[in-house]
Amino acid sequence: MTGPATCPLCGGSDSAPHMLLRCNNHIMKRMHINRHHNAVSRYGEEISKGKLGSAVVTMNACNSEKLSDLNIELPDDIERNISDWVFPTQQNLPTRHQSRPDGVLIMPIEGRGRILDPKQIPLRGRDIHLKEFRSCSDINP
Ligand SMILES: [Zn+2]
Question: Which helix (H) or strand (E) holds 30?
Answer without folding.
Answer: helix 26-49
